[in-house]
Prior knowledge:
By secondary structure, the protein is mainly β.
Amino acid sequence: MLYIVLSASIHGVEGGQHSFSDRVIFLLPSASASQAASGWSATALRCFNLLGKSTSKSVTQVQAQATEAMAEPAYTVPVFRDRTSEGTEEYQRVSANVGKGLAVIQQELHRMRVATKVQVDNLAIQREVKDMMAKKPDLLDDVPKMPDFLVALRPHTVWEKTPVKLFCTVSGNPRPIVKWYKGGKPVDPLSAPGKYKIENKYGVHSLIISRCVVSDTAEYSAVATNQHGTATSKATITVKRPAGSGESCHLGLVPHLTEIHASKLEVTLLDRFPVSFGVEGSSISLVCTMVVVPDLPNVPPMAQWYRDDKLLKPSKLAEMSVGGGVARLTLPHLAKDDEGLYTLRIFTKDGTTEHSAYLFVSDAAPTAAGAPGAPMSVKAYDINSDYVLVAWKPPNTVNEAAITGYFVDRCEAGSDTWVQCNDAPVKICKYPVHGLSIGRSYHFRVRAVNSAGMSRPSRKSDKVTAIDPAESERLQVIKIHGKYDIVIKDDDLEGYVTIPGEPTDVHASEIFKSYVVLSWKPPSPRGRAPLWYVIEKCLAGTGAWQKINTAVKLHSPRYPVFDLQEGQKYQFRVYSVNMYGSSEASVPSEPIQKVDEDGVPSAPGQIVATRNTKSSVFVQWDSPKHQKNLMGYYIDGRIVGSKDWFPCNHKPFKHNRFVVHGLIPGESYVFRVQAVNVFGLSEESQESSPIAVEPALSTPSAPFGITMLSSDGSSITLAWQSPKHCGGSKVNAYYLDKRDADTLDWKEVNLAAVKERICTVDNLTDGTFYEFKVAAGNLAGLGVPSAPSAPMKCEAWTMAEPGPSYDLSFSEVRGHSLVLLWKAPVYTGASPVTGYLVEMAKKGSTEFTNLTPEAVSHRFLQVSGLEEGESYVFKVRAVNADGIGKASQVSVPVCARALPGTKEIEAGVDEETGDIFLSLEACEISETSKFVWSKNYKPIGDCPRVSLSTKGRTSRLTFTNPDKDDLGRYSVVVTDTDGVSSSHTLTEDALNTMLELSYAIRHPVVPLKHGLNYEILEKGHVRFWLQAVKISSSVSYRFIVNDKEVTSGEGHKISHDVATGIIQMTVDHFTRANEGTYTVQIHDGKAKTQSSLVLVGDVFKAALKEAEFQRKEHIRKQGPHFSEYLYFTVTEDCTVMLACKVANVKKETAFHWYKEDDEIVLDTPPNVMSGACALPIPLFSRKDQGVYKAALSDDRGKDTSVFDISGQVFDDIINAIAQIAGASASELVLQCTPEGIRLQCYMNYYTEEMKTIWKHKESKIASSEKMRIGGTAEMAWMQICDPSDKEKGSYSIEISDGVKTHTRSFDLSGQAYTDAYEEYLRLKAAAFAEKNRGRVVGGLPDVVTIMEEKSLSLTCTVWGEPTPEVTWFKNEQEVASSEHTKVTFDGGKFASLVINKVTPDDSGKYSINVRNKYGGEFVEITVSVYRHGEKIPEPKLGQATPAATPAATPAATPAATPVPRSPAPPSKTPTPTPSKSQTPAPSLKSPTPASTPASTPVPKSPTPTPKSPTPSRGVKSPTPPRFMKSPTPPRK
């Protein structure tokens, strides 16, 4: 048999002595370790009941207390399901069966041992105190006695992170005060909130350390003190760590720490999450802080989160964490689906502790103005292999147009591509989606549509997979011998089936006006082959069946039908089909007809709103008579007096009661309700009665912070803090109770109510300690009293220093500053109070910082430099000549954060009365609130210098007769609020500014936009005018000229316009007599003003000149005239146009152009009837300067316009040309010439007057022999003569139009320079060769006809350097010199061929070849010889004439046949064309031997070539020419 040992220490009181008994042993028999683990708890608890009453609470009690303590009083906490028997067993299993085995049992016994010891100690102490109090003789009440410890402290050795309690009982008269010390230093519970707890109950003083750490190991002492002496009791606490944690540990017989389950922890909630507000798409966190005992990092409390009574699970949309004293729920992507009542449930050793609060989620900004909000709660139902039914909840439409329908989208899981499922919007909140792929997973979302646009999409649904639910139903599980599971399919039981059976139970599962969903049961037998269905329909009773899903292969026993006619009844039947064939038709369905969609619920019934809190209202209503599958309700509200409704909830609320949060305190509202179902929203209910947002009326909470301000030995003056909650009504009474610290009986101090929070209690006994408590009362009654104060000794204060200040309060709390106020001490000491010192600390800290290096004389202090959201505490010490007095009680913590909607005091001037005022609009207010104004933080009260008025939420302080005495800091506090307050410092500058404005309002003037001015009108009339900001129809005014009033009459017209505020006078004949001073005096009601204009001297002369000019202009315009005088424009081709516009012309009107008085006659006469005339000036340059004139005349008169093109006008025209030319400029083009390398820029027009700059490497190039700059009408060029490496680099041309510079550049370096330089050398050599080659300069005819026996002399001049060689040929045979034929070449210049006495044999083709090393020329002459008496023959070029007639001199007859001639030399500056040149045909070959040097070909080039001495003719060198393509692209 196994015995379990349960031990407990029991102590008691025997004869007033404290004694301890030995350990009591309980032997619990158990059959086995497992039975012991499960059965010892009941026996142990019975043992506990023998020792004393258990302090643990039942689960039911905790639930009840949690329900009462909910943060939101108007909500019903979700009633969680009671634990079933199965749940109870699970809870007991978790609580008891922590583990198996002996070690677990030992750990559990240790925990019971500790708990039993604490309970036994408490019971013993209570009995001991009770007995001693009963035995204490009444006679000893008045006997003085120094403190004495009846029960002394005793030492403890405990585990780390477990609690420990030190207690003692002390006697003495008067009752001693006990203070606790650790290691000689006072124990301060505020230094570590939640760690230390000091109690004093029935004379038993205790110190509880909630969770011990090793550093808590120390000697602790309790020091009891009264006026007769001091007594001390000491004990040591030793804190051990478990084995394996860094220290060895042996405590008693327990070898290990007790394993603690999360449900066994003591949990106390501290800061709880409030009602929260979020917006779609944002994130929010709900946080609760807590104290956990013991606080084990590896065993956090067990926490569960619920939304609307449904357990939440961790997911991407709901992140949960618990640990470190914090339970947190984060919703990272809010949607309206997240709205609801959130509950945090934490399991503790005594049951559960809970907290609930509502989360509101409003719509995000719509995609289009007026578009509806997004639908919500999208879910998929009736999931099949290719069909699901999607349902959702409709959004609330408050001020938006009604929803006309919804679009459903689907998306495959893992994809971001959404596909719209319905082509037309569906009007109900359900839609059947078919055509899904079997086995694939999908998400769905919904968008709402109204007349304004499309809503944002809803949150996507959970993932659903398109599978056949019938597959799982076709599986059967068979157990063999009760142990083995065998899974078989119905297919195995059906046998071999080919053609399936027919479907059954064909019916409509969804019937709406938009669609009908057909449903049926799959066939049985089904067969193993893949199955699909065919559906037929017919009008009921006709039997005319037709297929309706021919294009769709249907795999699910569901199918939506959309195209049914209204008013018709249909029947449907279904076939099962597989690869083997089709089944018989199913039994036809019952007749089915679409129904109307008028299915919204009726409007909810009566709605009642009642007060709840200062920012919420409790709304209840009656359910609608016809609910029609109600989804919930939408509640709307509006401010009384406003027309705009706002939504109070954004997700249908299921109950007919709701708390509307986030309202403006003090404002009045009305509410309405709409019911919601699948068809939409019902009509609105009737509006509720208006209700002001005020807290529900209740008794106030307890006052706190009782402080002793003074004592004279027979009385004590007390002060205290106001209740934190006034109960919705002003606190109008306080009642005090007192008692001797040694007694338990309380006695009333005052029967009449105390109005202020300070009271002097009389008739006290000197030297006695007293305790006090205070209760507050309002209209609802008397609230609960405060906790008893600390014992206060009634003895006369005789210290020289002042007593404590009191009533510390706060005003103007903002994010980084606040104002601290306090009251002067009641006890001032031996001398008057001269100042105050203020200290500050963060909440929970004991390190106070001095805020006042020197004492301040006033009783307020503005504290700045605070951290927003941080909480602070303050204390104040009064100072007098004898020193620093007692510190005040530490203030309540204040959080540095402004109230939502906080506004500041505004200073202004009343626009009607001119009064200077300060005003504040409160962000919250209650029925009992008052505005308390102060100057320099001293209440103003009834003061003749100011008057106070309040209207609604706004209070105004108006100054009666403001002056410098009113300067200072003004503040206002709104009572019965959460600290609504503000201040404003009125400075001298601000006051002076407002005084000026006040004077202007009280002594009004007519404000003027424009003072009196004049304007010259057409015909030379002069208009005098001014413009007021505003005038009324009753305005009166006078015009005064040179001190004489002018009235409307002949020559003067006076008028005004109320709409524009213009007052004017028009003078028809403005002459020298009108010089002088003009004044206008205006009266409009109480306001008046005047404005003057001095029109004399040069100003008057200028006005008179302008008036005379306008008169002449009017006369001029009676005949033909220029409506616009001459001006110039430049066309795209850079032609300058002188243009003008004419008016009042006719056909007979003559128009002429002149330049320098010389008429310009155009090819096309000007057409004056067109209204415009123009003179073109092409290729504009400096030669076009001069005075141009246009003349217009007919029988009615004439007019001229003159335009001088010179100076600045000429420069403007050149700049205009440069603007167009520069924009059209091409990139620089490279062109090589024999002289060098040329860069060319083509443009629409170029003239040297344009401002062009050529640059080389950013340096300006000046025209020189080296760098030549020029251009033609089509281009600008720059030529580098005889280039060298120095000329390499970047070149650019800048064309400036006076505003913009157009730049074109070319990089002449690298390969571009190499190629250009080689081409230049080639062209230079070719030009030199062309210049110096041999050639026939002149003297030879083309054809010679001569008579027989005459002598023929062919003489020509040749040229070449060096001197060329000359050779004569006849019929391509060289002619040798002889007596008959003589060849001569004289002086290297003249070559001759003389034939003496020619004969017909001398006829033929003669030629001369002139050649040197650079090339040569070959010239042919045709000679014809005829006989005497013959007719002179027609000579033919190149052929001999058979007849030869003698003649005295040879005659040269021009040949009839064309003869090739030398090309004419090009001009010096030819204009090149950017097109590619064509290669000319090669010249005739020369019969000269090949050894003769070939001439160098000359390429076509725009560069001028030097002329020959005389124009040459003949055939050029037979060497074919070469042409080099420019390295830059040609001009486009």
